[in-house]
Amino acid sequence: MEMTPALPRMHEREVGTHPDFLPAGRRTAAQVISRPSLTYWEDAWLRLKRNRQALASLGIVSALLLLTLVGPLFWRVDPAAQELNRISESPSFGVRARVIEEPGTYEELTRSDWPESPAAPERALEIPRAIGLLDEPSILAVRLRWEPVEGAAGYVIYRSDRAPEGAGSYGVPVGEVLGGNRLSYEDRFNLSPGEYYYTIVAKNGMEADRGITRKVVLEPGISLADAQLLRADARVGEILSLPSHPLGTDYLGRDLLARLMAGARISLFIGILAPLLWTFTGVLLGGFAGYAGGRVDGVLMRVTDLVMALPFLLFMILFKVVLGGGPGESGIVPMLLSMVVLSWTGPARLARGQVLQLRESEFIQASRLLGASPAWLLFRHLLPNTLGVILVSLTFSIPSAIFTEAFLSFIGMGVVPPTPSWGSMCNDGIQRFLTYPHEFLFPAVFISVTVLAFNLLGDGLRDALDPKMRSVS
Amino acid sequence: MKMRDRLLRVAAFTLGLLLAGAQGAFAAKNVLTYALSTEPPQLNSTKATDTESFFILGHIMEGLTRNGRDGETLPGVAEKWEISDRGATFHLRANARWSDGKPVTARDFVFAWRTAVDPKNASEYAFILYPVRNAEKINKGQLPVTELGVTAVDERTLKVVFEKPCGYFLGLTSFGTFMPVREDVYKAKGERYAAEAADLVSNGPFKLTSWVHGASLRMDRNPHYWNSAQISLEAIDIPYITPDNSARFNFFKAGKVDILAGLGKDDLPKAQSERMKMRNFSDGTLLFLEFNFREGRVTRNKKLRQAIAAVFNPQEYISRVVGIPGTKPGRGLIPAWLRGKKDLFRKEYPIADRRPDLARARALVAEARKELGVAQLPPLVWLTGDTPTAAKEAEYFQSVFKNALGIDLRIDKQIFKQRLAKMSTGDFDIVAAGWGPDYADPMTFAELFTSWNENNRGKYVSAEYDRLIRAAQATSDAGARMDAMAQAERLALEDVALLPTYERAVVFVMNDSLDGVIRHAVGPDPDFTRARFVSNGR
Fold first, then answer.
1. Are residues A301 and A403 in the same domain?
2. B321 → chain A, closest CA residue
3. Do A383 and A465 belong together in one domain?
4. Which DSSP state fits B316?
5. Does A435 contact chain B (CB < 8 Å)?
6. CATH number for the domain including A358?
7. Distance of CA B34 to the CA centre of its chain
8. Which of A273, A280, A360, B217 is buried most deeply by CB count within 10 Å?
9. Is B278's CB within 8 Å of A173's CB?
10. In terms of residue numbers, what domain contains A439?
11. CB proximity A434 to B under 8 Å
């Protein structure tokens, strides 16, 4: 406040000249504003910067936005491309595989001097005496052969990825040959690099208890036809580097990183656009109700009560079904609309309360006395003064919107395939969580971290934007 | 004194409860627990169409005959019969009874069969009775139901007159639609018949005692069943109904169910690491894509259907996507396990393996667009079930269609009942369908694509196909029948009325102490009627 120079002099004259009451010298230096004055926003930013949690969250949120917008420019993998021979692979970099030729035609081994379907023997069937391979096993085909068993009318071929521990633990029955004189089998079923234990069990009506086991190790390989899709001049015997999957692949061999990026788009699109829309709608309606007051206010607030009383998830699903269009059509726009229809009430109440409070305050009255128009009052005084509160409610509604989208997609009410979303990826992943945990963990971690970051950021913003907590120093 | 008295009473009551609990634990060894993948949509035997319903009906009802361990026909309600080219006479056993103690009579069969062909009942399985005289005319509303060629000579004699010679009629008599229905109960319950456990009476080894829709079912031994002494199980308890394979797997792992009828692809590694004893079984079902031939559907265009067939790669699909060992590629309409004249039908009428041909598929799609006069084909609606497996298979096709043909696929996932309803109303372009055999004759598949079959969901109509099937049905000469059906099959494949994808196999696991469980390709599967616990396993 500027000093009025006239005032002390008047005092001087009236009070007399006691030394205690001598006028202070003009200390103008103390009145100089040494630091730049802080606007509301500058101060808020200062305070936010001091909040480490909020700052870290801001970093995470920015990184997510970057990943969504810029990531696909660098990681140019189609999220819908299926690599069917690399299903549910763990995270990998530059796997190398040998280009192998499609194996020659398979000719079954039979013994003409052996009975095809003998009568069931009295005693239990024996174990085949030997098990071998017809030719070099590869990831494309494993060709087994074995010695015949007396009295057998067929053989069952089991396969396991771990060494069997006696009867009953031979693994998956991959095939069966009918005929005691047929002594070979070609396995082409879903082979992947690694160890396999093949067991042959003789059968005649009933299966024998025990069989003979052989271990087969399959090297990483890629068929010539597939290799030529990667590089046109690929040749047999050459070692090729397969495409990397830094976060692994899913149940149809799709790249998880690419899918997470595509999913982030959906999640952030809904997560940011929906709260923006509903906050805008809410503030507009609430501000109007608060400003107009009276009957308009009453009607609008009863509508708000009504909408608030609706069970959120139930109506969310109902709206989605009604607005959803035909089967298999994208559910993003209906989801957005129903979120706005159901969620505008919170910000509306908030804005109405603020406006009601401000409407009666002195500076508004002064402004009104000076002849300000309602529009001026609304846009110059009322809205800016409610902005802080509204911004805070906005930041808190973003994580809840992301979560709602994830939840709806998780239960199959959200996006439709092939569009990925974090929620639907979780749903796909959880079914095979025990076998391939990475398919579930990555999207789940993304959802959790994003929701947490937005919440912490909202917390920080609330503190920063609260005028009562303005910095004193 | 009074207080002590009360205490004593409470103690006695508690002891009683404990004893009852212990008794329950002993009895539990004779109760088989099982999990269904979906709620049975229809337990009215004259209207049921699906495997889940027939599984329940096969345990709570019994027809004139029943299926044995190897698919042979065993006496059921009928203890003996005479059968000829003209008709058959069944002699019902005197001690066959309903669950309320009343005897099963020949009239119960007459009523059931008449109801099944009654056009008012609109049963989708009416066609299966067409071998009975006048059945087809009655079903089309040309004759009253009383004209059906089946009569109750007396309480215990049922006489059937055939429309034309039918070589496989005996095999039909164990089928659900041929099961008896009690007229008084059916009429008293009206629309509510078989809607709840209390709304039906049964004559089978078990009776339905509890049915919480969508949640659980329980079947207790039926003491009035004529062969009740041979039934070892106290009850079949189905406390879980879930389409989720891995949930069912966890129930089995935790010992909450005794048998898992089919493991999901993703459960195989888990079962391996748990070292479970796995068994393989081909359930006889053919899986195929069915196209919609109704007015206004682009799938009416033959070139488009041919393009879809040309792009399909069975080897990749079975090995990588279906992923259940033992699955065979679907070559034709008639699955490989059915018998023809002397040997297997497929050996007598071989069909070459399907190989994908991308260039040809693209050319065909271009022609289809020209014929339809569109620059871009509209998205196709792919109707399928709500199981994770069905979704995965649909997503595979979605990618293939998009990449190879440039066609968008909209996946319409529906629960079983709703999917059946949508299939009947034709609310789809392509449906991933499956058909399990009703009896062990190629006709059970061949008849599917006739114009009069309600299960011809795509409404494929071909006069030549109809003619061939009629010819096959009009004779009992095996050679002529098989030749006609093979011709019809070739025609359907040329027209791409369907695209066979695979013949299903299941890998299953069960409690080690469980014995006598029968897996049927034909009939209720799995069949628990003769199951028993041999030792105190688990």
1. yes
2. A252
3. yes
4. H
5. yes
6. 1.10.3720.10
7. 18
8. B217
9. yes
10. 256-469
11. yes
Q: Among residues 373-392 of chain B, which lie with CB inside 8 Å of chain A?
A: 379, 381-383, 388, 391-392
Residue A280 shares a structural domain with residue A426: yes
B268 to chain A: closest CA residue: A172
DSSP single-letter state for residue A246: T
B275:A165 CB<8 A: yes
Q: What's the CA angle centered on B188, arms B180 and B134, to 5 degrees? A: 45
Contact A173 B280 (CB under 8 A): yes
Question: Contact B326/A432, CB-based, under 8 Å?
Answer: no
- Same domain? For A201 and A299 the reply is no
Count of domains observed in chain A:
2
CA distance A418 to chain B (A): 7
- Written as one letter, the residue type at B376 is Q
- Based on the fold, state whether residues A285 and A202 are members of the same structural domain: no
User: Which helix (H) or strand (E) element contains residue B492?
Assistant: helix B478-494
SS percent in chain A: helix, strand, coil, step 5: 50, 15, 35
Q: Which two tokens stand for residue B519?
A: 């897996």
**Token pair for residue B202?**
């049964």
Contact B325 A172 (CB under 8 A): yes
**CB within 8 Å of chain B, chain A residues 403-422:** 412, 416-418
CA A448 from centroid of its chain's CA atoms = 8
Which residues lie across from B152 on neighbouring strands? B158
Contacts of B249 (CB under 8 A, 6+ apart): B260, B263, B264, B267, B270, B271
Same-domain check for residues A291 and A184: no
The neighbour count for residue B5, using CB atoms within 10 Å, is: 9
Q: Residue B156 is which amino acid?
A: R
A82 touches chain B (CB under 8 A): yes
Q: Residues B71, B281: contact at Cβ < 8 Å?
A: no
**Nearest residue to A273 via CA among A331, A336, A338:** A336
Residue A103: both structure tokens together: 């194996």
How confident is chain B (538 residues) per 10-residue block, as mean pLDDT?
Answer: 47 49 51 91 89 92 89 89 91 92 93 93 88 92 92 92 86 92 92 90 93 93 91 92 87 92 85 88 91 90 91 88 88 89 88 87 91 88 86 90 88 84 88 88 91 88 92 86 92 92 92 87 88 69
Domains of chain B (ranges, CATH numbers): 61-182 (3.90.76.10), 283-506 (3.10.105.10)
Q: Residue A472's pLDDT band (boundaries 50, 70, 90)?
A: low
Q: What is the largest CA-CA distance in chain A?
A: 141
